[in-house]
Amino acid sequence: MQRREFLKLLGAGTAIGAFPGAVRAASPAQGRVVVIGGGYAGATAAKYLRLWGGDDLEIILVEKNTTFISCPLSNLVLGGSKKIGDLTFNFSGLDRYRIKRLHEEVTAIDVEHREIVVGDGDKLGYDRLIIAPGIDFMWDKLPMLESAAAQEKVPHAWKAGPQTVNLRKQMEAMPNSGVFAISIPKAPYRCPPGPYERVSQVAFYLKHAKPNSRIIVLDANPEIVSKKDLFTKAWAELYPGMVDYRPNSQTVDVDVDSRSVKTEFETVKADVLNIIPQQQAGGPARMAGVANVDKRWCEVDFLSYESKVAPNVHIIGDSVSAALPKSAHMATSQAKVCASAIASLMRGVAFDPQPVFANTCYSFVSDRLAMHVANVYRYDPAKKIMVSADGGGVSDKPSEQEGNYAQYWAKNIWSDVLS
Amino acid sequence: MKACALIAAALLFVVLSAQAAGEDNHLRVLAASCAACHGMDGNSVGGTPVLAGLDRSHFMLQMQSFRDGTRASSVMHHHAKGLTQQEIEQLADHFAAQPRGAAAPLMPLGNL
What we know:
heterodimer; A: alpha/beta; FAD/NAD(P)-binding domain; 4-stranded parallel beta sheet; 26% strand; globular; B: mainly alpha; Cytochrome Bc1 Complex, Chain D, domain 2
């Protein structure tokens, strides 16, 4: 559907008033909620707003892409046990929830007047706005990598899609006894165990296809950020001598043409170079002025995910400033707290003063072996943050059983988010 | 004075209603958080146990066994130990009340 026709359908410009302040438990939620971003967080929020907010709520999802490509499992494209098409979905499963979709870029957000601008200037008013933009890269730290041409040669592949496929193709073209170098940014970044899963997947491929090759891991962190002992052991047992892990190695410069990366201590030249840049809240969050923590992440109220600096604006997913892992399951859990709170707010009833949710995150160390980290998170009223409950933890060891569980996880979360 | 009492009673009603709503909201978010592995409303679309329509006492027994280690698990003990007894009871009631649906996995676009 073309945008103008879409906006006409919406009756753009006829901003619907804010919900009435009176407590009316039986009344349906009314008004318009605009969700920016159709990833794990945004799509979940839109769907659950319909389930919990009732039929009278108008829900609009603004997402520039027409397909959803899953970051979880995308490292398996590098290992070779998945194709990107296995992880690619359309959004039509959300249609039965009467979510109006607008596949356009957001070009401005006016939190004062409660409206956003899409495409070349059409305005869209809202009563509540949910911003779920994922992450953006901090190109100012590595400006030589900002252009599409530079990323063709040195991909980040940290948003699943064409760059994931590109990186796999570069691995296929790599000579035996070649060097694959990967640069990992300082935490926080999207998917804490993700870079180490990637190392495992690259090793899995190289062990079979180019066994004389090496992987040099330049990690800006002082040690492996997540599942450290499990990854260390898996690399030693499954890929002996292949992974050269170097902590405290922050990338300070990159020569794109020669695929050389410079840290404070050394220069490493690679046949395939994968730089995962430092990350910040996605563009729409910064555009709205809600990235108030170091101008990088968004501070929210963990009961509703409403911004601490802009009323009626909620931020969910990887852009949130929190001591919580930036994972897909976490994004959906935050989305559900947010959707539940907005459904209550728009009815004028109280929302949950003490949310509890779970997070489970699997990492594959080969095509079939996986391991998990799992925790329950509980709101702490004194600290006003989500804290990890007792009893959480990681696998004893990677296993095929958990490899199956990880595949089941993906099937179920995809279905929960998109259908 | 009577008016004050009436207002107080009305306010109490509002507070209690709000609290009840808050509790429902608490459970719906917690239960929905299980969907990542067990599907929407506990209707798993593949591999993991279907929780929808599961007998209440069976659910409670499994969760208790995960907690005390009498049932070996790779993942579930990490979740069961993080929940309160009351939350486990509420989840048991919630999933027992969910109809079993014929949910199907989402089909990827493939061929890319």
